[in-house]
Records
---
Amino acid sequence: QVTLEESGPTVVKPTQTVTLNCTISGFSLTTSGEGVGWIRQPPGKALEWLALIYWDDDKRFRPDLEGRLAITKDPSKDQILLTVTNADPADTGTYYCAHLQTVGWSSYFDYWGQGTPVTVSS
Amino acid sequence: IQMTQSPSSLSASVGDRVTITCRASQSISSYLNWYQQKPGKAAKLLIFGAINLQSGVPSRFSGSGSGTEFTLTISSLQPEDFATYYCQQSYNMWTFGQGTKVEVK
């Protein structure tokens, strides 16, 4: 059974760095084809894809945030970390990690964590 | 790639046929997915590859379209279907639409 669980600080101050953790089970990021992405949702707003990491350490980032985002994986701990630098109140929202399923050239997020809330406020 | 959904919200009754449209700013072939989200919950995959029903999703949900215009249809709205629906392209990285909220009429 595939599960993902996010964890991290609930409140951070502006300009600080936010580090969020996604712990996975039921699949491994050492397996060819696997990927995990991060998606966030500001309060009352739409979903926004942020970043993705593949089993081979290939990475993709949302273009307008690329300079502030980092994504890494620790397969030995089944963890994927997302780092957002220079936090701003606009980064407030619920952050989800999700499993990326790839079928040919098509891909979709088929399993999601429950989400972790982050508030950026002084 | 920008994804635009219409309408942004709609009011419907149980048993109604509901249609939501998603337009892409450029052709995305059939690389279009649909998700359902209820308040306080993570999104749930409904349709992938424009027309393919995810396992376990009721057959009253269907998807159509290719290129730049796509449709999600709920053939007979059920009480548990009141939620927000998002389209998402996977042609070039991943982008979500702004969402369509389906409310009780």
---
Amino acid sequence: EADIYQTPRYLVIGTGKKITLECSQTMGHDKMYWYQQDPGMELHLIHYSYGVNSTEKGDLSSESTVSRIRTEHFPLTLESARPSHTSQYLCASSEYGGVDQPQHFGDGTRLSIL
Amino acid sequence: DAKTTQPNSMESNEEEPVHLPCNHSTISGTDYIHWYRQLPSQGPEYVIHGLTSNVNNRMASLAIAEDRKSSTLILHRATLRDAAVYYCILSNQAGTALIFGKGTTLSVSS
């Protein structure tokens, strides 16, 4: 069974704060992803990584940034949160290879910016 | 990027088979067809994927049309725990990620 963890599950915070959403996986997967999902809507890829020191922007433009210093860890940071950043953020990982490799998802972080 | 078309919602009764259709008329020769599902308040869960041949696993079966322009996810005996949003997905043009649509919301009644 896949083990990928996201913290916090829920975060309500004021405008202008710096936020870091944590994502860790224990499967040794090289590829990791961040998706953004508004309620009732589809997922949009915002960042991905092929491995340590690799980060790429996804299909949806985002003001967030990511880093990949360790294989198991792929945090997402918002330097100055705004109400428009309110959404659910989902992290996923997969074994290295083509996009046919199954992705394993965490349960997400529901972010609300006041 | 290749797109998929799915019905917004479907209903099923418990212990009956469910056939979830998906159209992907612009699929390219190298696109895999993926199915994921998302239960309420959870992240998506991988269900099955295939390229040309029909596929079976412990969760479901995937039937792919000969021209690959459509596919069907088959749940052999629906349970209440199968109520979820089911996504039929192709990859993006760069082949780097999956393109999620709005999916089909499956309701299962006892």
---
Amino acid sequence: AQSVTQLDSHVSVSEGTPVLLRCNYSSSYSPSLFWYVQHPNKGLQLLLKYTSAATLVKGINGFEAEFKKSETSFHLTKPSAHMSDAAEYFCVVSAGGYNKLIFGAGTRLAVHP
Amino acid sequence: DVKVTQSSRYLVKRTGEKVFLECVQDMDHENMFWYRQDPGLGLRLIYFSYDVKMKEKGDIPEGYSVSREKKERFSLILESASTNQTSMYLCASSNGGSKGAEAFFGQGTRLTVV
């Protein structure tokens, strides 16, 4: 069975400082992993995905994530937060024959001036 | 662009009513999903379908059923709506044949059961 744990429900940073959103996963199969973002009253948008190629994955808007199999982690980072990054972020695992997607509970990122 | 369209943005229904939520995708995707989103719980999978007439229960199927008679359309049915089914419902589709296929989401239906 697959599962995802997002270790922080809320993260607050100052504009211009680094962002770290933590995600651990569990999967019986070789997983694919995703980060999605949801801005207030907007739909879900894919930030980046890992599918067993390079372990460091770059996404949109300066975000990146590193797949660490030994730690079963897929943490999302950004060197410098921007006010527009304030949103809810979801870590997602996909595995098995039908590529069923399992979401974490989400991390709400607040960015302060 | 891939488009996933949910038939309603907002719905208000009475307890005990049968409710239909419709979702249509235009990219010939094999997989379609229904999730509900509640604060602090993320998106929880209700049902998914990997082909026409094929479906599997997700994590919270109780009180729901689904129908997929055509590849592009996936319907979620609340057999007898209850107040604890008040939530945001999200439909998604993906290319089932590709490892790591991205899912595309509709804008959501906010359902209120009174």
